[in-house]
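Reply to dn_fold:

You asked what the input looked like. This is it:
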Amino acid sequence: MATRDTAVSSMTLDRAGMEQQLAQSVHHFIDCAFDGEDLSRLDLQGCTFERCTFADTSLFASKLARSTWRRCRAGSADFESVDAVDATFEGCDLNNTKWRRAKLASVTYRGCKLTGASFEEAAHLGLTFEDSLLVGADLRGFSFRKAILKQLDFSDAYLAGCDFRDAVFEGGSLRNATIKLAKFQGADLRGADIDGFKLSEAALLKGAVITHAQAANFMRALDLVVI
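and this is what came back:
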């Protein structure tokens, strides 16, 4: 039911129900369920979603600019071609979501689960990840140049062609990530777990800053003893 701040809560909404709420200028949704629905191409600009569920929901080409998502669950949702400029995602489960060709300029993901998420061909200028899981995510070609990367888990992620030049890793992991053609010149990797990198990839780390312990791991792979 609607409240005085034009929010609705604890409703299960299909496409028609969502269109009706938007027509009534409702832009705040709390504990609502949209699972499996087709919400493609809807204008959701400026909407706020709190603890809502979007499992397997299609948001293809929806307008999500300036929207806010707090503690939502959207596993396997389709965000392909959305315009999410200036959107914020906080504490959300976005595992296995698809963001192909999405407009993600100045988007913030904070405390999110993005395991297996695909960002192929996404426009991402000014995008920020913080304290998030990106295990197995496809981030090919992303630029993190000069970024402060706080507690990001890129384990097993596809990072081919990514630009990490002069980036600083504050915690997090690159364990077993695919880093073909990635750039790390000037990157500070001392806070990151870089186990699992292949010796053939060591040249990609030329110019990066690592610890003695990290260097020793590379030497052990050559059966050399570092004293």
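Residues 212-221 form the longest helix (10 residues).
Hope that clears it up.
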